[in-house]
Amino acid sequence: MDSTTGPAPAQASTPQLRDSPQRWWLAALLVSSMMVLYAHRGALSIAAPYMIKELNLSTAVMGALLSAFFWSYWLMQVPAGWLVDRFGARRAYALGFAFWSISSAFTGLVGGLAALMFVRMLVGVGQAVAFPASARAVANWFRDKERGTVTGAYLSGVRLGQALIAAIGVFLLAKYGWKGFFIAIGLPPLIWILPWMLFLKKWEVRENGAAPGTPRGAAAAAPKPASFLQSLALLRERTVLGIFLGFFAYDYAWFVFLTWLPGYLKLERGFSDREMAIYSAVPFVAMSLVIVGSGVLSDFLIRRGLRETLVRKWLIAVGLAVACLIVPAGLVEDKMTAVWLLSISLCGLGISSPNTWTLTQAVCSRRIVGTVSGIQNFGGNLGGVLAPSVTGLIAHQTQSFSLALTLTGVILVGGILSYWLLIGQRVEPPSSGPEPAPVGG
Q1: With CB atoms 3.0 to 4.6 Å apart as the test, which of 108, 163, 196, 313 could cross-link to 281 if both were Cys?
Q2: Cα(356)–Cα(158) distance, rounded to whole angstroms?
Q3: Is residue 262 part of a domain?
């Protein structure tokens, strides 16, 4: 059950799907979409060493190009989260998926640095909807004690997508060049939209301006959605601020790995193309397994009676502490020791990963899960804006990545403090009382 109090309604947001085995088909769609999302997002980091050579770019310039995606992605997070809560996960996700896939393909059709930056910003606009829509889907259509497992599953899709593009990207680049590579990976995934739209058509109902998922006949009693400005003002809440700052730290470290791991292994550690493909992919596969395990473990502990917010905060803190191994990874001389430390550091992020999203669901009313998830990703992707360019600039100025990785460790410590000290009080929708508990939750 949701932790809010109040009279239980006869029906709640699509309780039929919450109680139906068909909800696991929805979980499969969420996993597969995240694989596509991160394959498209991570493609530029795989192509980066080849583009640096062909376009004669410095690491500082490539860092700016890697950051371009996050400029728009970051700014669109809060609007995207609000749109998901206002218009529904089904249509919002489908539109965003189509937009980012086509934009990703267009990366291979443009020439020049400015045009590449613009197209990457378009990819960011489309992908902004993915995490708020996924969080809202979990809140709407899965039981509370399942959300760690489901969130862990779709977040494993994130890392599997990155591992997949790292594993096959080198071979596609060798066969088609970087321009053909982006076209080849951009268009085929559009087929995902069809099963997504068809499956959720019968579950997500909208009547007379009611919130997505409101059952037929209950539209008149549905609460009026908060305005965009009211939703943005949630950042003044202590808990929401903690979510914002903590996820900034998590995502800063994650995007250092996402955007610079292949380049770091090749440029600083001297790995061959084949070695780069292997050691860029395997850590993400290991991280994916840890993410699923962490989600399952958190749900198990909660079912045993431990308090949900405490369980999720502990796992976040432990994971971010393990991720601080990124610091010695940049200082050791042996390149294989560095790979092992980086892999363990990534697995530490994996321990935290599902709990960052499910903690948000646990401390927020379901009616604003999309909005607060957007604020969370807004903070995280401020890290995404900064991490690639700051890392590339430090590497350019110092001719080493060591200082950049040490800075990442310092930021992770700040994230631990934010999650532990600021997050506590439950967050309700602006100008509204507690929501009723969902049936079947």
Answers
A1: 163
A2: 14
A3: yes
Decide if 380 is inside a domain: yes
Place of tokens 């699923």: 292
H or E element in which residue 213 lies? none
Cβ-based neighbours of 298, under 8 Å, separated by 6 or more: 148, 311, 312, 315, 354, 355, 358
Q: Is residue 438 part of a domain?
A: no
Tokens 């432990």 correspond to: 318
Predicted TM-score of the model (pTM): 0.70
CB atoms within 10 A of CB 28: 14
Taking Cα atoms as reference points, which of 171, 161, 167 lies closest to residue 42? 161
- Containing structural domain, residue 302: 20-422
Residues in a beta bridge with 364: 427
What 27-31 contacts at long range (C-beta under 8 Å, 24+ apart), as own/partner pairs, is: 27/142, 27/150, 27/153, 27/154, 29/192, 29/195, 29/196, 29/199, 30/134, 30/137, 30/138, 30/150, 30/153, 30/154, 30/157, 31/153, 31/154, 31/156, 31/157
Per-residue pLDDT tens for 1-18?
344 334 334 344 444 777
What pLDDT score does 68 carry?
85
Note whether residue 393 is domain-resident: yes
Which position has the token pair 């996402």?
Answer: 258
Tokens 């206002």 sit at which residue? 86
The pLDDT tens digits for 367-380 are 788 788 888 888 88
For the ranges 7-11, 204-208, 354-358, the lowest mean pLDDT is seen at 7-11
DSSP state of 425: S
Total domain count for the chain?
Answer: 1
CATH number at residue 59: 1.20.1250.20
Instruction: Give CA–CA dist 286/291, Å, rounded.
Output: 9
CB 50 within 8 A of CB 350: no
pLDDT band at 224 (very low <50, low <70, confident <90, very high): low
List all residues 6 or more positions away from 73 whose beta carbon is below 8 Å from its beta carbon: 123, 124, 125, 127, 128, 381, 384
Tokens coding 360: 């948000």
| For residues 290-297, average pLDDT | 90
- Are 146 and 155 in contact, with CB atoms under 8 Å apart? no
How far CA 107 is from CA of 58, 118, 130, 175, in Å, comes to 19, 9, 20, 17
Distance from C-alpha of 107 to C-alpha of 95, rounded to nearest angstrom? 19
